[in-house]
Amino acid sequence: MPDIKHFDPDRALERAERLFWRHGAATTSIQAVTAETGLNRSSLYATFGGKRELHLAALRRYVRLRSAPVCAALAADPRGLPAVREFFAGLVDARCEGEYARWGCMLVNAYAGEEAADPEVRAVLDGHHRSLRDAFRAVLETARDQGQLAPGVVPGDGAEVLVLLAYGVNVRSRAGAGAGELHRTVAAALAGLASGSR
Fold first, then answer.
1. Residue 157 CA to its chain's centroid (Å)
2. What number of other Cβ atoms are within 10 A of residue 88's Cβ?
3. Are 95 and 170 in contact (CB under 8 A)?
4. Could you tell me the pTM of the whole model?
5. CB neighbours (10 Å) of residue 179?
6. For residues 16-28, average pLDDT
7. Contacting residues for 69 by C-beta, under 8 A, at least 6 apart
């Protein structure tokens, strides 16, 4: 007879995701996970495996539900640089206000944690990096085609700069930087991309 789960695995994974996102994998104990999800260890292990597997599942969930849709929307945006400005305005606001304020990005947090040494974790992080870089490159190519980029700005190189800027916003906001400071920093960085006529 098949085992019948008396809980919602995705709801439990969402709770674990929030815990890992806020506190990091290394400092989150399995006791904290069971307390947050309301599951006992045997149910947790039977469904997800150990803490490492649960963290990987949480990272993948974060990418699927939070990161990938944003990257897809950015890549498809036909406005060019206004889309980049809107992306960063939204990022700063999300990182400094509301439910997830000061949590940073779960993926950027993982880069700085011990878990980044795990090859499977690293593969998730590298995949996210490529997706974000490719989204920025696509929108910068649109900006170039519309005459919005300053002379000498190469979309591929500019995309890498924008990824690093996004990482910096996440790290600085987690460390307590205010929204005003971050908006000014982003504006200064983006000013170097724009042509003088825009």
1. 20
2. 20
3. yes
4. 0.92
5. 15
6. 95
7. none
CB 102: neighbour CB atoms within 10 A? 13
Residue 45 has phi, psi (to 5 degrees) of -65, -40
CA-to-CA distance for 91 and 104, rounded, in angstroms?
10
Q: Does 198 score more than 50 pLDDT?
A: no
Type of residue numbered 100:
Y
Encoded amino acid at 64, one letter: R
Q: Compute the distance between CA of residue 178 and CA of residue 182 in angstroms, rounded to an integer.
A: 6
Residues listed for the chain = 198
Q: The CATH number of 9-191 is which of 2.60.40.3200, 1.10.3720.10, 1.20.200.10, 1.10.357.10?
A: 1.10.357.10
Q: Supply the DSSP string of 75-130, one letter for each residue.
A: HH-TTSHHHHHHHHHHHHHHHHSSTTTT---HHHHHHTSGGGGSHHHHHHHHHHHH
Handedness of CA 147, 151, 157, 162 (dihedral sign): negative
**C-alpha distances in Å from residue 76, one per residue of 13, 82, 147:** 30, 13, 18
Biggest alpha carbon–alpha carbon distance for the chain:
70
- Helix and strand numbers, DSSP H then E, in the chain: 10, 0
Read off the pLDDT of each residue in 23-44 and give the average, rounded to a whole number.
90
- Cβ atoms of 106 and 17 closer than 8 Å: yes
